[in-house]
Structures are given as structure tokens and as C-alpha cells.
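USER:
I would value a second opinion on how I read folds in C-alpha cell form. Give me a protein, with the fold worked out from its sequence. Write it directly below this note and I will take it from there.

ASSISTANT:
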Amino acid sequence: MTTPITLEAALPPPWTELDSEDSSDDDNDSVVFQGHEDPNLTVTTQSDVQFDDALIEDNKTQDPVVIHAREYQLEMFEESLKRNIIVAMETGTGKTQVAVLRIQAELEKSAPGKIVWFMAPTVALVEQQTRVLRSQIPAVQIKFLSGADGVQTWTDVRTWNDYLRNVSVVVSTYQVLLDALTHAFVRMDRISLIVLDEAHNCVGRHPGSKIMARYHESKAAGLPVPSILGLTASPIMRSKLDALELIEQTLDAVCRSPHIHREEFLSIVKRPTMHYVFYSTPDYIPLTSSMESLDRVYHSLDIYKDPYIIRLQADSSERSRTALVKALKKRDTYVLKQMQSLWRKSGEIQRELGPWAADYFIYAAVTQFLKSVKMNDPWFQEWSILEKRYLASALEKVKITIPAPFEDGTAGISDKVVALMRELSNRDDGTIGIIFVREVATVSVLSHILRLHPLTRDRFRIGLMVGTNTYTGRKQDLSGLSRASGYQDLEDFQNGKLNLLIATSVLEEGIDVPACNMVVCFDMPDNLKAFIQRRGRARMRASRLIMLMNRPTCQLDTWMALEGEMKKRYEDDMRQVQQLAELEESEQPEVEPLFIPETGAHLDFDQAKSHLEHFCRKISTQQHADSRPYYIFKQTHTSLGPPQITATVVLPMSLLPELRRVESSGLWYSEKNASKDAAFQAYVAIYRAGLLNDNLLPPLRDDFLEDIETRAGLTEVHGRWNPWTRIARAWCHPNEIYQRRLRLVDQEGNTLSEFDASLPVTFPKVLDFKVFWNKSETWKVEIGEVKVVSTQDLQVDQSSALIDIAYRHRRIGVKDTGRAVLHLRSPTQDIPFRELVGQTFIEETRLTDTALIRDCFKHPYFFKEWLPSLDPTIQVSRVLREEPVDVPWLVLQKWPRRRNFLREDPTWKQPSLLPPSKPTQTVWPAHLCRMDGAHVSSVCFGALIPSITHMIEIHLVVAELCNTLLKDIGFSDISLVTTAISASAAEEATNYQRLEFLGDTILKMLTTATVTANYPHYPEGYLDAIKSNIVSNSRLYLSALETGLDKFILAKKFTARKWQPIYVEDLLRADAGEPIKEEMSTKTLADVVEALIGAAFLDGGISKALICVQIFIPEVDWRSYESACTALFSQTPMSEQILPALAPLEELIGYSFRNKNLLVEATTHASFGFVNSTGSCMERLEFLGDAVLDNIVTGVLWAHDRDLSQRDMHLLRTACVNADLLGFLGMEWAVAQEATDVSKEGATIATETHIPFWKFLRHMSPYIATAQTATKEKHALERGPILDAIHHGKVYPWVQLAHLHIPKFFSDLFESVLGAVWVDSGASADACSRIVERAGILPYLRRMLADDVDVLHPKNHLGEFAGKDCKTVEYRTEGRAAADGSRELFCTVLVAGEVVVEVGGGVGYEEVQARAADLAYRILVERSVVEKGEKGKGEGSHDEVMA
């Protein structure tokens, strides 16, 4: 049963203060709404907040805004509870307050998880309404959404669910909700109430109309649907009788205005009085001299010299030929259209504003453009340089008349402007007004006139508002005089700094504008809606709505004329265009939408083009490849009517050939609908090919492996597996005893002591290991073969006794009756517990170096020398100063204080410039000392027990790991596993870093080969996303957790200082407790997985590495190299005939392809698809070759004589495989071809020409051709120093290569050819290595290794040098105008806030930063040397003075 909602419970307090919180930091959104499907769709908005009358009159800024509910608003609220309604109330009467009340009521009754969705057509209005709702409903989460929030990148349901968790109200533009519903990220049944602000716009193909179509589909299917509340000041857009019925049907609502409290409502509605101002229009207006000159220049332009035409003629592609025919036929180039627009607008301005205004407009537009071109400012930056030069040369020919300054008269001004100024001059000083003008250019010129003319310049503070398009790629119009959209003027108008705003229709609705007392329609409103919206702006008391007219008429006649004018639109010179538009609208596409039942995603006919363009942008990754789909139209003439059209859409070469050309399914009267049909059919085909996810979007990384989550820095893991717990349980009921002999051997190979170690479980193989007794003595613990003994033959454990004699002075908790987990027993001597320490008095005859001496505190010492008496010069400790010196004394060597003998003491390797602070020897009186009964070697062995136990524990852990999780690999060398699971933080003898580097490379190579073979129809971008997900640390650390690897990782340091003997009973008690949990770095977890892959590879080649990969990432259908090559080879059509142009390339690389088509594919750029749409491009092979190159270089680094550190291998590999070096070597690498010249005498001369590797790239891009030529010229100038650095230099040429600035497609070619060889050769490492060798990469690598070349990048050099003193480095890179008008890159380097250097002349950000870093590093090093020298001199002088 639904709980009834009382009115009192639903209402807010009578006065609620509205704060000024802004929910968005996007200040650049246009007030012109850009629909997702149709970029030409313009929707206007309306502000509906009801302000208190007193505040409206006394405080124009309304800050803070005060809102309260009136009776008629409550009437509308109650009506909205009964049914879906459209609240129709005029501007300023408080429709938003009705929405606030309705939302509050909905929140009270909605089930958990339901959402109220408030929509407005523009971002500005969305922001405004968000502030109102947040102030009125502060207790719930209200979120603001717009395109600026990046919602277009939220491409999975999880993201939306996370964002909407605990959210009660969402405020957004219509398009945001439409996209969310389209892709099933938000379902209709999740929304409890939809509020549609400016609901009159929801007709036709408006996003609001499409949302309601989803609503009606759900309702017809019997599914839950939300309630609807529409808000509008004008329920109909145009004067049509059926418009109201249509909007009601669309919104499934009835239109309602206040009825019961209508008198109060009408008292609030302050409609302005209508005033008509008449002006005369001359029958004939002669052109000004500037207009005549502009006309001559425009009509004299030669279209064949237009840069656009020249470019199309140079490009022989199908797309360009089609565009060229169209441009010549219609004289349709951007420059010509701009000149035509300038001419047309000058005529309009002359008719509307007068000849003075026309001359000023031409003068301002031409002057602004020429100045911009000369100064190279960013205003026209989207124009090409050639277009700007071409137009500038034409405009320079225009003879411009500079308008004279205004006098008090009205010469040169139209009667319309005179009438306006007369009206303005008669207004009171308190006038606040808006002048609505149709054209943007007219706004600029009219505002200029009013600011200058004596009649108005001192009366009004004038601003303008025209709005803007925020699309970054849009070119600036030549006639756009204002460089600002007017938002600052609007803010100043809102704040009272301006009192007159001249605006286009952008200000009719939506923007929060203070109430005015004057609104002027300089041009007649286009429709009834515009009239109502303009009228609503004049809502102060005694307001005036002024209509400028060129003939007298009554109000009815005015609207009759307006309707007649609307009808006349279809009868003017654009009749044909309008008829075609009507024909387009009349075509009702009977195309079933694409619907995905699993997600509810829904794509209709009208959305396909924008979605297809988005898809094509996503899949193409190559430089200079035009990824946009383009359409080819074909007309079919019929005898019954106009010709009908079919369309073929052409898609990028990254796709399979069968997907690149898709035809429309039917015949259409318009190109627009034909292209939509083709796009829809293409999108359906793309979905069926598996290239879209079930949300009908290009899949992103998370779509390929959905279980992967964002990786945190730390994660909870199991405590490390403790082998002693199982051993403790086994000691309770031992069956067999496994025993190994432990021998302690000195540096000469002499056995110091022997002990048998026994366990009640299988004793794994333990590798011999070193122990570091002191700085000069390094011993070894050798572990013998295992043997099995019976429990009866096991003698008494001596481990407690050994620990006691070695550590009694440390008070270690040794138990006499406790059973140690590691049973130790000497095969030759009896060592009873606590009976041998200090057992014997000192006798000189019995003292040898095998004796262990203890002082009166039981501290152990090695015996060194017998002193009959003490030399008085020998210092003794304070406690012995009272002892007699004429009795025997002993010189003793101190016992080591350390417990961890597995590591050398770091201080041993430090240079000893000063004598040690603590002597290693001491003296004690003989009568205070005692001698142990055990041999000193047994005591030393006892001291080593913590270290021995730790090493056996590690091998027990490794054995368990190898016998369980890694059983299928069958490791033969367990030391590799030990290294692979040892983190550097554990400080074991080895760590996983080198193995991780190797494993990372192997994993990426296996992954690349597998995904490329498994997804033959996927473009490179998809393959990279799949690979990145598989090899990501986020995936790998989860693999470690899922497989239980985490409990085997050695991540903590062995803390011998805290070590205690391990006893069976202690472990059994602890075993009953809760499992231990701890935190571990997720990167460590991921690194260990990669290290184990590297270990498996070293142990048994790629076959074992593949088994290891399958263990940790089982969800992938892994392939061996051979299987991947077989699949990839079969996916390319077979051909044994090579293209003649590519035959020299086989000679150059030294490899003959079995399938020549692989070489063709490897050399074909995506732009070549305009010529040949049947083959494949290089992207997939380049993706494969990148991994092959990494694999080859890593193999060479690993096989180097010296064990290189992970850091060194990473730096050297980066130096070998970076795009700059590959591009450069590709320009040096050339094949010789015979050529023949003919002398003047007619004799033939045999010559030789060289074809460099880069020239084999097959493309049809003029941009690539231009870039290749420019790079070739620059390479010829700069190659010398780079070659010298490669062959002889001690420093890698990072800066020189960056300055050469070779485009990436140079290196892409090499990687794709290498990938093709890998496939064709069946994954032959030798064949691929030979190509890398011939290209010069491996020879340079060997030289870098042999000559220890410095390969650290300058930025890393600088960062490390500054980091030594904890100083920060900052790079400030900016473009500046050079003297010749071009732009130049500068980089300033600051270290610890100090400017160290500034360099200019950069060709790119990376290059100029590398140069700046290199110079800054040299400066700091030189400065450091000087400072050290001065410091040395200062210290020397000080010493001399002291002497």
C-alpha cells in the first residue's frame, strides 16, 4: 500500500535561501545546444525561477535568490501528483518551484535506488537549475552532468552504477540521458520521475523526443515507466493547431495552467505594454564604394587558384575526385563561401543599419583578417596557411572607405536605426533593456554604432551577447567581428554594470537574465515561441515591448503578417531546398532499430552516422590516415517523380575488406537519409562482426577482461605460508624421518663441524649457501643428500643446546623440554643442554684456538693470547680497573654481535679512513674467565642456526610452491623459483628484478602473438586494448591472489635480531588461531608472476613459459608461437608473386617471403585504402612487430657476459627500440639498384642508385608525402653528428634524434615488416634477428655494451642529479611569436624554483625539453665542480692557518 503524501510534508519551509554553489567548472559550454545526432539542431532555454517582487525591484543581482511557493504553484504541484502534466506558465512565474515540490514528493515515495532525472537543453540552464535544486533539497545527493564531465568516456554499466550510487537527483542536458538510455547504462525503470525543462522543444528528432520514444516503448511492453513533468512558457513552437496535441502525445502528458488560483497567477504575470515604432525603407539603396570594390574582388576570384581545389587536384583518391567535382560545380570552397558571406552580410547591414554601417563592417572585417594573418595570432588558427594567404591577397585588393566619425546628425544611418536611437534617447535613466537582433554581424555593428553615436553613447552602458560554438575544430568566420561570445557582458549585465544588452536569439530563453523594463525587437520574431520568450524578458513593472516595423499595423495584423512571413519562407528563392527538406521529413524510414536484448541498448536510424564516425575515430591509430567515413551517392531516375538516391559508405582500411564498403538498403529522395541508411547498415554489420560491445559502442579495455579492477597500491594478502606448522603436526606422529648432513666449511675447504638435520616430512633439496662470519672469513654450509631413518634411530635433539651455548648471553628463550621443529644432532659428539657453558677453569696448557672463553657475565670470546701479566699501557674496561695486573690476563677476540650471517655487513665495504670506534679485541684477567666444554666450531654452528633455519624454510616454501601451483611446469632449477619469489625488500641473496624484466617481455610477446591470431578481424587498437588488459599489473596481481601465489612470496626482510627458537608446541597452539592477513604491494604481486614466467623460460624455454602463463591467466585461449604463426599465415591470402616495387625490399632485408602478400600488407599504410579496398594495412603487423623487436633486444641483453641490472636492461632496450632511432636507421638503411644514364654523346653509363627502407611505404596521403620530403631534407643536414654518436660517441644521441623529429610512421614500417617476417618464417628468432642486425640495431647495442655508452635520457640525468639534494625540476614549455611571424617553442628549466636555462627553436615539446634538460644538467654539473673546488681551497687555507 502506498503511503499518502501530505502537502505539508512535501513542502519546504516558506522561505529558503538559495546558495551560490556551482556544480561545474566548465565555463566554456555554448548556449547553443549541439545534438549528438544532428549538429545543426539548435534548442533554446528558459529560466523559470520565481523571485520575490521586492527583491526583483531592489536587487537586480538576486544573490542570494529567495524562493517560496505561491498558491498557483501549489495548484500545479497537486495536479502533477495526479497525472503527467506539462506546466505552462509564463517566464518569471516560478515553474521551477513546481518542479522542486514535485521532486521532493517523489523522493519521499520512491523505492531505494530510484532516481529523479531533471533535464534542460543547455549546460548554462542545467548549471542554474542544479544550484536551485541543491539549495531547495540539500538533504540528498544531486549531481550535475554534462559533456564536460567526460560522460562520453563512461562506457560501461559499472561506471554509471558507481557514479549514481546514493544519488537521488541527476540534472543534465537531454543528450546525456539519451546516450545513457541508448547504451543501456541507465534503464528507464530505474527512473521514478523525469522533469523536462523547456518541454516545448521535445518534438521531431530532438533528444527529448527520442527519450520519450524509449518511454513509450517501455510502457507499451508493460514495463515500469517514470512519471513525467514538463515545464514550458510556450507549449507550442509555431502557430499550428495540432502542435499542442503533438507535444502532449509525445510527453504522455496533458498541458495545464493555473485555473483555481488564476487571479493570483495573472497578478504575477506582468506582461509589458506593446509599442510600435515605425521606420521607412527606401525603394533603392545604392552600393557604397567599399561594397562595389568587394563585389568586384569576389567575382574576379579564380576558383582554380583556391588552395582547396589545388589540394583536391593533387590527390587522386576517390574521395578527392568526388569532392572536386562537387566543389567546381557549386563553386563551393571555404574561401569563396567566406567572401560570399562577407558580401551578403554587408548588403544586409546596409539595408538594416545604413551605408555607414556597411562600410564600417567591411573595414572592420577586412582589417581584422589582414592584421591577424600578419601577426599570426590564433584567431584564425583553424584556417590553413595557404587559405589565409590566398584570401589575404584578395582582400588587399579591396578599396576600403573608412567611415567618418559621427556628428550629431544621422547621415549614413538607416531610418530603422534612427527610430531605435530616438526611442532609446526618450527612455528614463533607470532603463534596463535588451535589443533582440537576428544576425550576429548586425549585433556587433549595431552595438558599435550605439556606443559611438552622441545620442546614446552617454545614456547607456552597452554590451552584446551572441553565444558561441565550442567545437574546437571549427574555423572562425571572416565576418565575425567580435572575438568574445558575450558571456562577460552578460555577467556584467546581470551584475548591473551594463544596462543595455544587444543579443541574438540565444538570449530568448534559458539564460538567467534579470527582469527588464524594456525589450526591443529590432527584427520581428521568427515565430510565436520567440515572441512569447522575448515578451517574457520584460517582466518588471511598467515594462515596454517595442516592435520596430516598417509599416503601421495593429497587433492582430502583426501576427497575421508574422504567419504570412513564415509561410512565405517556403515560397522564396530557397523553395527547392525547403521542398527537399519537406521531402526528407516525409520519408518515414521503415528500418528496424538495432536492439540488444541482453543490455537493452538501442540504436535507431537517426543515430547511426554519429555512432559510425565515433567508431571510425576509435579504431584508427595511424598518423595521417583519414579515418572519417565518407559517402558515395548514386541517383536512380524514375518517370514517376524525382530521382531516388542510394549511398555507399566507405570505412577505414583498419577494418576487414568486407566491412569497408556498405550500401544503403533502400532508395531515398535525399542524400541525408540515404547516408543515414548506409551508416545504419554499416553499424549493424560492424556489430555482427564483433567489433562493438553489447552497449553498441567500441569496446574499451574493461570490455575485454571485465573482471579487472583498478589496481590499488596495496592489497590484503594471506600471510606467508609457514612450513613449520605442517612439520610441527608431523612431529606428533612421525612415520619416517628425512635427514640431510650439514657441513660447515671454511674458505680453504676444511670442515669445521658437521650436524645432521632431520624433518618428519620430505626434506627438499637445499642449495649450498655462504655465511659471512666476519669481514675476513666467509664460510659455506654444504647440504648433503637426503636419507631416510626410522624414528627409533633418531637420537636426542641438540638444537636447544647449540642455541643455548651460542646465545645464552642474549637471553634467547631456549627450552630444555621443548621439541624443535628442526632436529639437529652432531654425529660425533655429545652436547648436553646447559652443561658445557663456562665449564672449566682457565689453564694455560689447555688454551688453544679451539677454546671458547667466557667472562664472568657469560659473554663468549675467542682465545687469542696468554699474558703472564698486564702491561700497564693496555687500556682495560672500567669494571676491570681494580683487578691486579701482576696475574695472568687473556687477550680475547670479541664474539660477533650479528645473528644474520647470510649478508655481509654493509660497513665492511666502506673505505676505512679512521680507526674503528670499537676495538674488536679486549683483555680479561684469567681468574675471572671460564672455558666452555664444547668445541668452538660447535658454538659457531649454534650461532648460525637462525640463518640455517631461514634458508631451509625458504627451500621448504619453494618446494611447496613447485609441488602445488607450479607442478605442471616441472622446474628443474629451484634456484630460479627462489629468485623469482624474492622481492628486493626481503634482502635475500637474489631478487626477482632481472627475471621480472625477462618475464614481462616474454608475456607481452606471447600475449601479442595470441591475441593477434585469435582475433583476425580486430584492428590494432582493439588488439592493444586486449593485450594491455592481459599484461596489466591490475590483471597480474589478481592472478597472484586467485592462484594463492601471494602466500609464497618472500616480501619481508629476515629479522634475525628478533629470531626465537621454533618449537612444536608453540606452533600447534598458534595453528588454532585466525589466519594471518597482511598488506602487500600490488606491483610486487604482479612482478612475481612475471618473474616466474621468466624463470620458467630459463628453465625450459618458451614451452615452459607458456605453461606458466596458462596457470596464472587461464581465461585466455593461449597459443604457442608456432600455433599463432600458423593461424596468422593462413589468415592472409596466399600469393607467390611479389609486387615489382617491393622486390628490392626483400633484397634489402635479406629475406624472401613464402607468402608475398604478407610483405604487401606490412608496407601498406591505412591511407592506401582509398586506392585499394581489398587488402589489409600494416597496423596489425606493426602491433606484432613491436613485441618481436622487444623480444629480440631483450634476448641479446640477457645473454650478455655481464649480468645487467633491470634498470640497465630497461634503459638499453629503450635506447634500441625507440621510434626516433628506428626512424633514423630506416633512413640510413638502403638497397643498391643498378641504373643507367645516357651521356651527351648518346653512350650509356651504368650507375647505381640507393633506395632507402622508408621509401617502400605504400600510402596515398599527401601529408605523408610532404612529411617524407621534409624529413629527408632535414636528415641530409643533420645525419652526420648522429652517425658519429652511433659509431663512436660515449653518449646516446637523444637530443639530436629528437631534433630530427622523424614522424612515427617511419618506425612503424620497420616494425610491421619485422612482424611479417615473424609470421612468414614460423616465428624464427634467427630470421627476425638477422633483420634487426641488418638494420643496424644490434650492432649499435653491442657497441653500447662494449663501450659503456651513457644511455640515460637528459631529463633523467637532470632529475637524478637534482634529486640527490632533494630538489624539484620543473619544465615550462610555451610557444612564442618569432620575428618573422612564425611560432617558436621555448622551454625554461627551473630547479628548486631557480631558472637554470631557457632554450628556444624547438621542433616539438619532447625535443625542446630534452635540449633544455641536457644544457641544464651540464650547467649544474659544472657549477657543482666549481663549488667543490672552492670548498677544497677553503679547507686547505683553514688547515694552513691552523698549522
In short: The two ends are 103 Å apart (CA to CA).
